[in-house]
């Protein structure tokens, strides 16, 4: 879940200590407290009656009658919605990573196990939304259901299972500023901004039709997907971290910490693989050209082949950065973590700006805005 969309900088240094203005990507479509009352979050209807009954019986047997604060419920509801959306986009990736040979082969240029990793990430996201929804029901709360917003067309390429989608992967603007953000001492929570490592504007991250094996076109799409994988998961890492100080229930705290931890695992994997994106002549013109590179091929910035670029080869762990106060030592952390930069509304704004929800109706944005606002307003009940 991307929540820190920034623009490229003209400076040679990829880190800037000036805060760039962040447009309200949500726009007027993100209404407040309008759609939730009408919708009622009737998620229980989307689950089989037997499943719901067993969940409620199990909750009673486990002492699930203990009530959550309204803030804890708001946080869990937004996370359930976010994980449903993640499941939808990752499912589209999995269908093509496993069922479309040209796309599979192109992803394997980043790593031979990429299709398997994509499938595992999809499994994880489904387990997250399934668990959170059932946990809400076990506490007497309604599950979150977005099925009536499943209206967007998906890929027409071989491997796609067809059907309508919640998210749009056919025309994305991918925030790649995470690469520099995690390698320099700056932190968005202190107003720092970071250059894009590569500009990916209005590009597909899955093929919409069958393309030849080994073609530049399919490799470009796979490369863009590799960057998007990391963009989504670093956003999720920050989102969960932003909620940690807000929860009241120790059990909800365990949920936020444990699921948030898997988002970090995902991000570390994907940022490593994105660095293996192969050159695609003519399709990555924004990447610098190696002065003595064979045939003028482009390369991934920071891979050690350009003396003018910092060498980030195999440096995937978060570099220490500013945290809490500039009077304290630098610390290796997830960043950002403050609500303004990493919270629910920031996540919705970043995802909306990326084009992930292109084609959705106003009711969808109203619901996300309502869920996000309630989650961001949650406070620990001391």
Structural account:
By secondary structure, this protein is mainly alpha-helical. The protein has one domain. The chain is built from eleven helices and six strands. The strands form three sheets. A two-stranded antiparallel ribbon has the order 1-5. Strands 2-3 form a two-stranded antiparallel sheet. The protein has a two-stranded antiparallel ribbon with strand order 4-6. The longest helix is centred in the first third of the chain and has 30 residues, at 70-99. The two termini are 30 Å apart. The model is unreliable at 5-13, 18-65 and 285-300 (pLDDT under 50).
Topology:
Layout: E1 15-16, H1 35-39, H2 49-61, H3 70-99, H4 101-107, H5 114-138, E2 152-153, E3 164-165, E4 172-174, H6 178-181, E5 193-194, E6 200-203, H7 216-243, H8 250-274, H9 339-342, H10 344-354, H11 362-376
Antiparallel strand pairs: 1-5, 2-3, 4-6
């Amino acid at each position: 879940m991307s929540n820190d969309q920034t623009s490229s900088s003209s400076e040679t240094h990829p880190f800037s200590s000036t805060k760039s203005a962040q447009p309200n990507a949500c726009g007027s479509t993100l209404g407040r407290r309008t759609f939730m009352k009408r919708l009622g979050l009737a998620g229980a209807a989307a689950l089989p009656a037997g499943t719901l009954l067993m969940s409620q019986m199990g909750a009673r047997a486990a002492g699930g009658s203990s009530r959550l604060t309204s803030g804890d419920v708001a946080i869990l509801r937004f996370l359930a919605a976010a994980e449903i959306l993640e499941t939808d986009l990752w499912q589209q990736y999995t269908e093509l990573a496993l069922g479309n040979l040209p796309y599979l082969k192109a992803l394997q240029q980043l790593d031979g196990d990429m299709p398997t990793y994509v499938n595992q990430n999809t499994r994880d996201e489904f387990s997250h939304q399934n668990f959170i929804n059932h946990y809400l029901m076990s506490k007497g709360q309604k599950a979150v259901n977005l099925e009536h917003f499943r209206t967007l067309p998906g890929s027409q390429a071989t491997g796609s299972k067809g059907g309508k989608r919640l998210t749009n992967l056919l025309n994305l603007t991918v925030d790649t500023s995470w690469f520099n953000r995690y390698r320099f001492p700056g932190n968005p929570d202190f107003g720092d901004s970071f250059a894009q490592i590569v500009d990916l504007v209005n590009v597909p991250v899955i093929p919409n039709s069958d393309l030849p094996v080994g073609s530049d076109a399919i490799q470009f799409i796979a490369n863009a997907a590799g960057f998007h994988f990391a963009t989504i998961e670093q956003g999720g890492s920050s989102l969960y971290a932003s909620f940690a100080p807000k929860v009241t229930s120790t059990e909800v705290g365990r949920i936020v910490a444990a699921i948030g931890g898997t988002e970090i695992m995902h991000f570390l994997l994907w940022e490593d693989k994105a660095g293996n994106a192969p050159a695609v002549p003519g399709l990555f013109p924004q990447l610098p050209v190696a002065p003595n590179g064979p045939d003028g091929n482009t390369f991934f910035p920071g891979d050690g082949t350009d003396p003018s670029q910092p060498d980030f080869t195999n440096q995937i762990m978060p570099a220490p950065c500013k945290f809490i106060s500039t009077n304290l030592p630098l610390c290796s952390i997830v960043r950002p973590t403050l609500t303004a930069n990493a919270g629910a509304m920031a996540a919705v704004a970043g995802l909306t700006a990326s084009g992930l929800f292109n084609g959705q109706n106003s009711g969808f944005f109203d619901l996300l805005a309502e869920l996000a606002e309630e989650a961001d307003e949650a406070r620990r009940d001391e």
